[in-house]
Amino acid sequence: MRVTAAVLETAGGPFVPQEIDLAPPGPDEVLVRVHSVGVCGTDLEFSTFFPTPAVLGHEGAGVVEQVGSRVTTVAPGDHVAMSFTSCGTCPLCLTGSPAYCRRFDAVNFTGRRPDGTTALSRDGEEVNGHFLGQSSFASHVVAPARAVVPISRDIDLAHVGPFGCGFSTGAGGVLNVLRPRPGSSLVIFGAGAVGVAALLAATLSGCAVIAAVDVNPDKLATARTLGATHVVDSGRTDAAAALREIAPDGFDFAIDTTGREQVLRTAVEALGPLGHCGVIGIGPSPTMSFDWRSVLNGRTITGIIAGGAIPQVFLPKLLDLHAAGRFPVDPLLTHFPFDQINEAVAAVRAGTVGKAVLTLP
Ligand SMILES: [Zn+2]
Ligand SMILES: [Zn+2]
């Protein structure tokens, strides 16, 4: 079928909306018509080196139009969010950790299905896709059933897209992995969509001290309204010194959403003894470093993919909390029509929006 997709023609280049061809779903796949798709930092990071031509996008939500012959988990007409995929057969998938699937990169990041094929093409030329189980910068997606999460029809699909990655990454890092006890202290580096989702999860966990660190005063103001007890403008002040004043004995927990070496160092060194730092951001720095003495006192650093979540279990819970007004992410969302994808990307890069969401007719 002919679909509309925003094709990355060259690495680092713009996304070019156009009509391309999408093959029907295979036996274990689902055809989803996309209603909204968030723009995530991971899309921008991968757009600099992903093999082109390609369709990225991995925070899609929409309605199932067709299912493969072996699919039993969803049916046409079901509303769904989409998330990462996983092999389903490795020991880590079988023991409830699909975010750490042994074949995670092979099934999410090659631009192809595991068998080397792609459902996307253009005048006979193959187009890379299947990005994080979807490639949802498009009007339609062929996704593996494992990447698809059925959700209630009562939820406005325009708000759902970012739950598939950004919001579940931030919230899951806190609720599934760090698991702070009530009364804990937690500092979040980066007050973008992922950081704010972590912040809201910290409030749900009953953290007594929740500090947000960012260089953007507007994002810090939003963090303050959503439950941060302290904010630190690291563009104007020495963040390490400011955090020592807030928590003189060190924080119980830290979350880094930036992937920047200096920020990671500050995050680890802001911890108290036995403190736990979750590293969830994919950022520009290839390495992290810190004084080795700073981790001797029982500090833990844990890398976290996709909030450590089982999407089919975690996303519906997060959406229930959202519906109950207890996970109020709506102020973060700025909607753009799909054909303004490059304007949305520019706004994300400039930090002028909390979370850009593309909407399709
Ligand atoms: Zn696996
Ligand atoms: Zn993402």
UniProtKB/TrEMBL annotation:
Xref: SMART domains: PKS_ER (SM00829)
Alphabetical list of Gene3D superfamilies matching this protein: Medium-chain alcohol dehydrogenases, catalytic domain, NAD(P)-binding Rossmann-like Domain
Residue ranges constituting the Enoyl reductase (ER) domain according to the UniProt record: 13-358
Cofactor(s) the record lists: Zn(2+)
Any Pfam family: ADH_zinc_N
Presence of the UniProt keyword Lipoprotein in the record: no
InterPro entries in alphabetical order: ADH-like_C (IPR013149), ADH-like_N (IPR013154), ADH_Zn_CS (IPR002328), ER (IPR020843), GroES-like_sf (IPR011032), NAD(P)-bd_dom_sf (IPR036291)
Keywords tagged on the record: Metal-binding, Oxidoreductase, Zinc
Domain of life: Bacteria
CDD domains: benzyl_alcohol_DH
Protein family per UniProt: Belongs to the zinc-containing alcohol dehydrogenase family.
Stated name of the protein: Zinc-binding dehydrogenase
Organism, as annotated: Micromonospora echinofusca
